[in-house]
Amino acid sequence: TSRSQAVEFGFDRPCRVIGERINPTGKAELTAELQSLQTRQIMVFAEEQMKRGAHLLDVNVGAPMVDEARMLPLAVQALTSAHSIPLCLDSSDIPAIRAGLEAYPASPLVNSISGEEERMDILGPLCRDYGAPFILLPLKGRKLPVTAVERLAIIEDLLLKAESLRIPHRLILVDALALTVSSKPEAAKACLDVIRHCRERWGLGSTMGLSNISFGLPARELIN
Fold this sequence. Notes:
Layout: E1 18-22, H1 28-35, H2 40-51, E2 56-59, H3 68-82, E3 87-90, H4 94-103, E4 109-113, H5 119-130, E5 134-136, H6 148-164, E6 172-175, H7 187-202, E7 205-207, H8 220-223
Parallel strand pairs: 1-2, 2-3, 3-4, 4-5, 5-6, 6-7
Helix pairs in contact: 3-4, 4-5, 6-7
């Protein structure tokens, strides 16, 4: 939610698009602004994505020499003062997520909680207490889980941990972890298997970085 808008997720709802352009990776101008605690480029990217039909905006300010715990709440304040679109707070920096939640006037989506040591223990209760839904990312350690079985095992472990922390399932969306088919042809089927299993076994919705599936291929929009 935002101050004045709610975006509903569910199996009987249309697909929702999370715009991910507010991310400094490969964007020198945006990185320089974030290092200086400025938000001009953030606002430009926000307006572009809303015009193209985004339902939520992912906000990632992570870059070298950027103080995320200061910059993320500044970005949140700038965006929520100008627009009603709900936000997704995207950071691996836990103090930054905490600061972003404190600055946000409603319940943002949080991206993400993975199987890294203590991440669920710290971020899970934080999301629970703020009523913020979060993305569950099936990653643990450095190995990327390629098969659906590997991903589902990680998801199950994280769900058990979430239950022990009294985190309701309604706050959880699973990242199906789309991998590129140019290097792993079986990746798309594994992704679909994860989505189906999450829906049928746990009643969980899912999300994914959709364009990952077509990385390095021509006609990417058609493949997506």
